[in-house]
Write a structure and sequence with these properties.
The chain has 114 residues and is an alpha+beta fold. The protein is built from two helices and six strands.
Length: 114
């Protein structure tokens, strides 16, 4: 499912922006799907802020928001060229699963039990 601005606003979802010294350096969103697990969408950290733990903290915050929403499983998909992201997801407890959507640019699908 494509991430539109409406799908990133409550109650359909949410979008977080990470800031460092008042400047945006990362973002990530959740899309909720009723009783189905939510998806993490558009997770990104600017190159100049990578290695500072912002991605891991942003991921943890998205997981916490999904948990607070009542979700017990969280999903995401990513492109094979995003090696740092793939390593982050795996080291954060995500396991690779069969494709759960038809995202054209995705090569890896992950799921984590919360």
């Amino acid at each position: 499912m494509c991430a539109s601005s409406d799908s990133m606003r409550p109650p359909a979802g949410l979008f977080l922006v990470a800031a460092l010294r008042g400047e945006p350096v990362g973002c990530g969103g959740l899309q909720f799907h009723g009783d189905a697990p939510p998806d993490i969408k558009r997770m990104w950290v600017t190159e100049s802020a990578r290695g500072l733990g912002i991605g891991r903290r942003l991921l943890a915050e998205l997981e916490g928001r999904a948990r607070a929403h009542g979700s017990r499983v969280l999903r995401l998909e990513t492109n094979r060229s995003l090696g740092e992201a793939i390593n982050l997801y795996r080291s954060s407890g995500y396991r690779e699963v069969e494709a759960f959507n038809d995202e054209h640019y995705a090569h890896h699908w992950f799921e984590k039990r919360l």
